């Protein structure tokens, strides 16, 4: 019952976003601001996470492929495919869900309990459209871009770590990565990233926008938003894999 | 004028507003008073449409029932409303200037220069000339309230709502804010509705006073009538403080002396 209640309110929130903006230029400016906050603001964490992800995948794959009968280039193939199919679009996004999701939920939650959302309504501004729509648009654009950055960084860090530790040469790594490359994998990763970008921003906005109570509830909303986002990301990760691969 | 008729509101099984009817006078400072939990804020938020009531009607401009108009009509009507919230509700990420200019950016096609002139005019009106570039967290409680008032009047509203404008302020600043609300009401001929439980405000600015008790209207009238009102609950509320109790006792003593002489 609670799930249906939440789902119904979530759908109504999304429906309420389809209104004519009071002033289109202000909405565009807000989208640009959110793109900077969500996209540029997350580059640091994406760089750190991606570098370590690529390095760990390469080292662990090499650890498991000890047979002299298996070509070293397979390491590059497995690492690159894992990165593009799963690690960049899912693991990176799970980490982004923590950062962006909690940020959105706490921002909207604070605005709700300090009556800033009521102030917007009193002015005649459609508060959900003005506050939530730019976040969803920005997140759905920027998260795929961050995933692309993450995929490149992970592959290059894996290649360099392989070379540095001597488990696989740069040439072998890249040969493997290119040899078993299927272009659809990139499309699949982007489809996942767009879906996850939408989930993170819309679900976090829902929990933040409907926060009730005081400061404690803002924290609870942020935590709930991150947990639900992570579960939904993993759920849709499976659904998309089942449907598209 | 704003007229509310038979307004009822419940949260679950608890009825907060019980058949409230009142007429808030045009161009006057109307006060809603009552103890905490008496339904003042719920009534005010219902009048501006932030809370949906169960039944009743809210008539603006003598003919528009706020509860029966569509979203577009409601949005238009809201452009005639300014509101000062209890916690000021300033946008944290924007400077004072950007807070005040926000409605102008959203709803007008004025040039930047025209908008800035209007912003400075409003900030001057609330005696905040040097605060344009400050953020809300750099302001005192009284300054936040003044910025809130500046933002509320920037669109030249017909109606000004103030929810507990003196909460969290020292007595001196409270008097300044009260005077500001009264002056703005008189200068711009705005219909103002103020929620308060501050008796100083009642005596200073209340042209029309509505007293709520447990969600019911118990008394209404002018501030001059309030000291001699015979309503038991109203007297308990007004004379809860020693200061007003002593005034009442002195007043009674004077009347009895005059009678004896």
Structure report:
The complex is a heterodimer of chains A (245) and B (261). Chain A contains 9 helices and no strands. In chain A, helix 8 packs antiparallel against helix 9 (215-244). Chain A has one domain (22-244). Chain A is mostly helical and 245 residues long. Helices cover 84% and strands 0% of the residues of chain A. Chain B has 10 helices and 10 strands. Chain B has helices spanning 40-47, 71-78, 96-107, 112-125, 141-153, 171-188, 199-205, 223-226, 232-238, 242-260; strands at residues 2-11, 14-24, 29-33, 55-60, 64-65, 81-84, 159-163, 191-196, 208-213, 216-221. In chain B, helix 3 (96-107) packs across helix 4, helix 3 runs parallel beside helix 5 (141-153) and helix 6 packs parallel to helix 7 (199-205). The longest helix of chain B has 19 residues, at 242-260. In chain B, 39% of the residues are buried. The model of chain B has no long low-confidence stretch (mean pLDDT 88). At the A-B interface, helix 5 of A face helix 2, strand 6 and helix 3 of B.
Strand order of the largest sheet of chain B: 6-7-8-3-9-10
Radius of gyration of chain B: 20 Å
What is the overall number of helices of chain B?
A: 10
Radius of gyration of chain A: 21 Å
The number of distinct structural domains of chain B comes to 2
Please give the largest β-sheet of chain A: none
Task: Output mean pLDDT of chain B.
Answer: 88
Give a short account of the largest sheet of chain B: 6 strands, mixed
Low-confidence stretches of chain A: none
Low-confidence blocks of residues of chain B:
none
């Amino acid at each position: 019952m609670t799930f249906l209640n939440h789902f119904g309110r979530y759908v109504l929130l999304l429906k309420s976003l389809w209104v004519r903006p009071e002033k289109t230029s202000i909405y565009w400016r807000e989208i640009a601001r959110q793109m900077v906050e969500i996209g540029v603001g997350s580059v640091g964490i994406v760089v750190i996470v991606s570098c370590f992800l690529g390095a760990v995948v390469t080292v662990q794959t090499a650890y498991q492929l000890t047979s002299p009968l298996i070509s070293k280039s397979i390491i590059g193939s497995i690492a690159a495919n894992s990165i593009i199919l799963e690690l960049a679009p899912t693991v990176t996004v799970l980490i982004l869900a923590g950062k962006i999701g909690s940020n959105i939920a706490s921002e909207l939650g604070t605005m709700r309990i300090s009556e800033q959302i009521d102030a917007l309504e009193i002015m005649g501004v459609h508060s959900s459209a003005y506050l939530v729509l730019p976040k969803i648009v920005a997140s759905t654009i920027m998260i795929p871009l961050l995933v692309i950055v993450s995929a490149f960084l992970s592959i290059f860090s894996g290649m360099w770590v392989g070379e540095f530790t001597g488990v696989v040469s740069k040439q072998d790594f890249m040969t493997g990565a290119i040899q078993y490359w299927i272009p659809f994998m990139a499309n699949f990763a982007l489809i996942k990233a767009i879906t996850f970008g939408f989930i993170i921003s819309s679900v976090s906005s829902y929990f933040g926008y409907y926060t009730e109570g005081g400061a404690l509830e803002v924290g609870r909303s942020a935590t709930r938003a991150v947990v639900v986002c992570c579960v939904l990301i993993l759920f849709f990760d499976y659904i998309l894999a089942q449907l598209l691969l | 004028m704003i007229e509310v008729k038979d307004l009822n509101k419940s949260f679950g099984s608890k009825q907060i507003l019980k058949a409230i009817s009142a007429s808030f006078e045009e161009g006057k400072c109307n006060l809603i008073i009552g103890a905490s939990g008496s339904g003042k804020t719920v009534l005010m938020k219902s009048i501006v449409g932030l809370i949906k009531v169960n039944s009743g009607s809210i008539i603006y401009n003598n003919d528009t029932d706020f509860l029966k108009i569509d979203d577009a009509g409601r949005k238009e009507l809201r452009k005639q409303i300014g509101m000062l919230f209890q916690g000021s509700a300033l946008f944290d990420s924007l400077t004072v200037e950007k807070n005040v200019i926000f409605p102008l950016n959203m709803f007008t096609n004025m040039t930047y220069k025209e908008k800035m002139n209007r912003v400075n005019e409003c900030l001057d009106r609330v005696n905040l000339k040097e605060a344009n570039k400050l953020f809300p967290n750099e302001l005192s409680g009284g300054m936040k309230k003044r910025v809130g008032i500046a933002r509320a009047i920037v669109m030249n509203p017909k109606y000004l709502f103030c929810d507990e404008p003196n909460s969290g302020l020292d007595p001196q600043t409270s008097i300044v804010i009260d005077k500001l609300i009264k002056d703005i009401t008189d200068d711009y001929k705005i219909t103002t509705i103020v929620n308060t439980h501050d008796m100083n405000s009642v005596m200073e600015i209340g042209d029309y006073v509505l007293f709520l008790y447990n969600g019911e209207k118990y008394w209404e009238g002018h501030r001059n009538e309030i000291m001699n009102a015979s309503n038991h609950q109203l007297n308990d509320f007004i004379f809860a403080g020693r200061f007003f109790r002593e005034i009442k006792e002195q007043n009674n003593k004077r009347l009895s002396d005059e009678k004896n002489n």
